[in-house]
Design a protein that fits this description.
With 328 residues, this protein is an alpha/beta fold. It has two domains: 6-127 and 256-324, FAD/NAD(P)-binding domain, CATH 3.50.50.60; 130-252, FAD/NAD(P)-binding domain. Helices cover 23% and strands 27% of the residues. It has seven helices and 17 strands. The chain has helices at 15-26, 67-80, 134-138, 148-151, 169-178, 198-205, 304-324; strands at residues 6-11, 32-34, 84-86, 89-94, 100-106, 111-122, 126-128, 144-145, 161-165, 184-188, 210-213, 216-224, 228-236, 242-246, 249-252, 256-258, 290-292. The strands form four sheets. Strands 1, 2, 3, 4, 5, 6 and 17 form a seven-stranded mixed sheet that branches. Helix 1 (15-26) runs parallel beside helix 7 (304-324) and helix 5 (169-178) packs parallel to helix 6 (198-205). Bound molecules: flavin-adenine dinucleotide. The site of flavin-adenine dinucleotide has 42 residues, from helix 1, strand 4, helix 4 and helix 7. The site of flavin-adenine dinucleotide (FAD) has 42 residues, from helix 1, strand 4, helix 4 and helix 7.
Length: 328
């Protein structure tokens, strides 16, 4: 009996993965999604938006939508056209032979199995780095965020002071963006100069609404159950002194980690671990038959809608590649 080879396996179940699944299923590719096993946050089925209360910028929802509702709806839509779902992660992958071999693992249920596939769509996302404070976890969605574009316009931050932590280009971008809404933006950085490029750094230091808090780290996020974040306690690492900054939000802008460790040595990654695409308009990687979509291949935009758009491209590219190889 010949073993089963999937035509298309999609790794990851965020906006990129589900959109790829919708398109692949409607193209009769009968895709299998490895949705993540929920072992930790980076591997949660549904992806990052499962931890976000309100998504206000995903087109089609006039009054916004909860992250969980949005992801549940995308999954239902994908399943309606025949997408199959396994609650598991791709633990190991061999792209050196055809068909590709994926060792899948569901750590929560101590389950392992092997999947073979003619085409792969990788959409494993990139996780925002947080400071790692208990108090930061406590106030997530109550003023703590890692995405100014996503959350900056929420009523909670309007005309209120906020804190951004970080010193690179992203931190400056986030701080500058937040000046549109916040009354004041404190940029807390552990050094006395920004790591950001000169032009970006100048943008921050010359902006009257941004106040630099040099040589400092956030020790604790302050708040209460009713109001959420009310301030942060910062420590000056040169003098050892501490101070409180009153604010309604704290944005961690200390980078992202793409969930691509399992791909090392199998597909080309850039120095930060993002999957390299063959060109900016397509989803092909350096391995024929392997396509990438969403935040794992996008260090620039990192939005649900851009991830979904990339998922659409990847499914169309996979379908065309299968046809060009004569695989039906
Ligand atoms: C706090 C916060 C708020 C946000 N709010 C908004 C917003 O309001 N609007 C907006 O547009 N964007 C928002 N974003 C950004 C948005 O969440 C991401 O851009 C989007 O989720 C990226 O989609 P994705 O499909 O590429 O990856 P993700 O949504 O991160 O999904 C990755 C998927 O891959 C799975 N996975 C990971 N590793 C493996 C593996 N080895 N095997 C199998 N599966 C794996 C995960 O379980 C998950 O299912 C927010 C982000 C954060 C952190």
């Amino acid at each position: 009996m010949s073993e089963k080879v999937e035509r298309t396996v999609i790794i990851g179940s965020g906006p990129a993965g589900w959109t790829a699944a919708i398109y692949a299923a409607r193209a009769n590719l009968n895709p299998l999604v490895l949705a993540g096993d929920g072992f930790n946050r980076d591997r949660f089925p549904g992806g990052q938006l499962m931890f976000t209360s309100e998504v206000e910028n995903y087109p089609g929802f006039v009054h916004g939508v909860s992250g969980q509702k949005l992801m549940g709806t995308l999954q239902e839509q994908a399943e309606r056209f025949g997408t199959r779902v396994e609650t598991a992660v791709a633990a190991k992958i061999d792209l050196g032979r055809r068909p590709f071999v994926i060792q899948a693992s569901d750590e929560l249920n101590s389950r392992e199995f092997v999947v073979k596939a003619h085409t792969l769509i990788i959409s494993t996302g990139a996780s925002a780095n947080y400071l790692g404070l208990e108090s930061e976890k406590k106030y997530e969605n109550l003023g703590v965020s890692a995405c100014a574009v996503c959350d900056g316009a929420l009523p909670r931050f309007r005309d209120q002071p906020v804190v951004v932590v970080g010193g690179g280009d992203t931190a400056v971008e986030e701080a500058t963006y937040l000046t549109k809404f916040a009354s004041r933006v404190y940029l807390v950085h552990r050094r006395d100069t920004l790591r950001a490029s000169k032009i970006m750094a100048a943008r921050a230091t010359e902006n009257a609404k941004i106040e630099m808090v040099w040589n400092s780290v956030v020790q604790e996020v302050l708040g209460n159950d009713q109001d959420g974040v009310t301030g942060v306690r910062v420590k000056n690492i040169k003098t050892g002194s501490t101070a409180e900054i009153a604010c309604r939000g704290m944005f961690a802008a200390i980078g992202h980690t793409p969930n691509t460790a399992f791909l090392r040595g199998q597909v080309d990654l850039d120095e930060k671990g993002y999957i390299k695409l063959a060109d900016a308009f397509r989803s092909a990687t350096n391995v024929p038959g392997v396509f990438a979509a969403g935040d794992c291949a996008d260090s620039v935009y990192r939005q649900a809608i851009t991830a979904a758009g990339m998922g659409c491209k990847a499914a169309i590219d996979a379908e065309r590649w299968l046809a060009s190889e004569g695989i039906h």
